[in-house]
Write a structure and sequence with these properties.
The protein is mostly beta strands. Helix content is 0%, strand content 45%.
Length: 287
């Protein structure tokens, strides 16, 4: 089964800080995941299943101009990430063969042109993320057995393995200064949020508890990390200090909330929620 990983988390401290009501961006209800904010702050890039096809789509933050990014691709492609300058996108491409397909990483210009392979298929290649300086791509691969974290240059050279665990390391996210990486790992039992140096050293767990953790994403100022938690029984978007302290529940709903992504100014979070039935993108203001 493909390790297209989903959600969730435990938090260090529950607070009752009120948050503004989320604004609904899409209303079609089709499956969505892997939301990313364009560096210009005007559009969102995400994975969508529409008419039975998994593909990359974009939509304005105002909910207008919903469109496919790569309409010529007939096979599944998903989980894209913008470079910091907004000029290129890295994403997962799934060549359908056998029962699971062959996943590789590809890059293209922001408008979908100049599409090419970055990391050829060796195993499951997923969750690609540009480094803040655009020189590296961080991603998850099962090429050595279970999901681990790797980096490769923007030219597809000098692959390096960062983690070596008997359990899964997932959901990587660069710190804004490029010196640290947040990720989800089950190395201490339940999946928890961990932080390490960009070279893979100094791994530290920053969430605790009996619930799963996932989707950590650094706020652009580096002071906070948003993530997803099941501490209250279903998936909510949470916010904590970069060291794991002072966690608070931002969404507090019975519907599943996943895939948080920061706006470039760090004042808003986009996320996917099933709160109104189906699966749609919402945006919430964050203090």
């Amino acid at each position: 089964m493909r390790p297209l990983v989903a959600l969730v988390v435990s938090a260090v401290l529950l607070t009752d800080t009120p948050a503004a009501d989320p604004v609904r961006v899409t209303d079609d209800g089709s499956f969505k995941q892997h939301v990313q904010w364009h560096p210009d702050g005007k559009t969102l890039l995400f994975t969508r299943i529409h008419q039975g096809k998994m593909a990359l789509w974009t939509v304005g933050v105002d909910g207008k101009e919903l469109k496919r990014l790569l309409p010529d691709h007939k096979e599944p492609h998903f989980d894209a990430h913008h470079s910091a300058d907004g000029k290129r996108i890295v994403y997962v491409y799934d060549k359908l063969e056998g029962t699971d397909g062959k996943l590789s990483l590809r890059t293209c210009a922001a408008d979908g042109t100049d599409d090419k392979v970055l990391v050829p298929h060796k195993a499951f290649e997923e969750s690609p993320r540009w480094s803040p300086d655009g020189k590296l791509v961080l991603w998850v691969s099962t090429r050595h057995g279970n999901p681990e974290l790797y980096t490769v240059t923007a030219e597809g050279k000098d692959e390096k393995r960062l983690t070596s665990e008997v359990t899964s390391d997932l959901h990587p996210s660069w710190s804004p200064d490029g010196k640290s990486i947040a990720f989800t790992s089950g190395r201490n039992g339940k999946q928890k949020v961990h932080v390490m140096n960009a070279d893979g050293t100094g791994v530290k767990r920053i969430t605790d508890g009996d619930h799963l953790d996932a989707w950590p994403v650094w706020r652009p100022d580096g002071k906070k990390i948003a993530f997803v938690s099941r501490k209250t029984g279903d998936s909510d978007v949470w916010l904590m200090d970069a060291d794991g302290k002072n966690a608070e529940n931002l969404t507090k709903t019975e519907g599943e909330d996943t895939s948080p992504a920061w706006s470039p100014d760090g004042k808003k979070l986009a996320f996917v929620s099933a709160r109104d039935g189906g699966s749609d993108i919402y945006v919430i203001e964050v203090k």
